């Protein structure tokens, strides 16, 4: 048999075998997660060796008698390169999650430029899971995106003027069972001038009222029994108005508030002791229906 015929037959047989290996390698690379799971004959090194034999055989068969060695060498190098490429591992690299902090994002969910689900109110709970969208900035929420309600009275903490109401007690829109005494809201002696500490207390009251915009409030001033009835009534009125004016400065709409002075008419303790009179000098906050 002639040299060319023998070389071509050997080359053809090896080409068929290499094609089968490459085909199997391509199929398995789409199924396997790593190149170590592939069969030995699908390894690029094995395919490269087979390619080298093929290329060398073809180079030998197609070369003249004077350049058999160089033809075989050139064919072997080219065949090895082609064989290695045919059996190269084409397993796709794993795709990193779009937004690792949220885990897998369901299909169809609106996302931002980084691939993270939209969180319109910025409370840390994405819109597609948020049962209370539109929560004001900075308000602490639960896993459902709803503001915390520590005493479970139906009024969330950021609106609740009485955050520790006992379980089962019915409350008004302020979160209080009844009118609430504004503790430490005091005034300079014999005047309606708020003390600095009273202003600090009212800052928190105002913040909760601003966050509870559908509620109107009654601000009620009270005094002890010292002095005339009329004087005490006037003083309590001015003090109630002073509180309302300060709350308005802090963002509470004036038309949501009314100021009422009751003077000494509604004591909650005896006026015969310093402690009792101190308790009677107070400002209360109630829902205004």
From TrEMBL:
UniProt main location, coarse: membrane
Keywords per UniProt: Cell outer membrane, Membrane, Signal
InterPro entries: Bact_OuterMem_StrucFunc (IPR050330), OMP_bac (IPR006664), OmpA-like (IPR006665), OMPA-like_CS (IPR006690), OmpA-like_sf (IPR036737), Thrombospondin_3-like_rpt (IPR003367), TSP_type-3_rpt (IPR028974)
Ranges where the OmpA-like domain occurs: 174-289
Superkingdom of origin: Bacteria
Keyword Signal listed: yes
Subcellular localization(s) per the UniProt record: Cell outer membrane
Name of one Pfam family that matches: OmpA
Record has Signal as a keyword: yes
Residues making up the signal peptide according to the UniProt record: 1-24
Protein name (Swiss-Prot/TrEMBL): OmpA family protein
Protein's organism: Vreelandella lionensis
